[in-house]
Amino acid sequence: MGNAALTIHVPSSLVLGDPVLEGGKVVHNKPNEVRFEKSSGAATGCGGRVQIRKKSNEEDEYSELYAYVSYNCANNGEYRWNKNDLGLKFHARWVGDSELIIDVTKGP
């Protein structure tokens, strides 16, 4: 059984809302980056949902990214848009043993 970690980055023109946990813990939460890690001794992975908004957005438009990394095998998890009003894109990559990094970018 491995450790699980998840990091989500967004450009400085966007801001992350408070994460909604499905598993694990948030080890840091900054306006442009959030990092989840597996809780020590727990038989679960880590991740959840985060809303992404434009800075100084007066409208109620946002995108919501769901991502979860499983703890029980290397490089296993899922990630998807639950909502994508902002037309964002993402690039996901695995680093080491079960660490997922997702870089969010603006769409065309």
**Radius of gyration, in angstroms, nearest whole number:** 14 Å
Report the helical percentage. Answer: under 10%
> How many DSSP helices?
0
- Structural shape: elongated
Rounded to the nearest angstrom, the distance between the terminal CA atoms is 40 Å
Structural class: mainly beta
Element-level helix/strand string = EEEEEEEEEE
| Low-confidence spans | none
Strand content: over 45%
How do the strands line up in the largest sheet?
Answer: 4-5-1-10-9
Q: What is the total tally of β strands? A: 10
Quick one: biggest sheet?
Answer: 5 strands, mixed
Provide mean pLDDT, rounded.
91
Could you please describe the fold and organization of this structure?
The structure is a single chain. The chain has 108 residues and is mostly beta strands. It is 0% helix and 56% strand. It has no helices and ten strands. The protein has a five-stranded mixed sheet, with no helix packed on it. Strands 2, 3, 6, 7 and 8 form a five-stranded antiparallel sheet that branches. β4 and β5 form a beta hairpin. The model has no long low-confidence stretch (mean pLDDT 91).
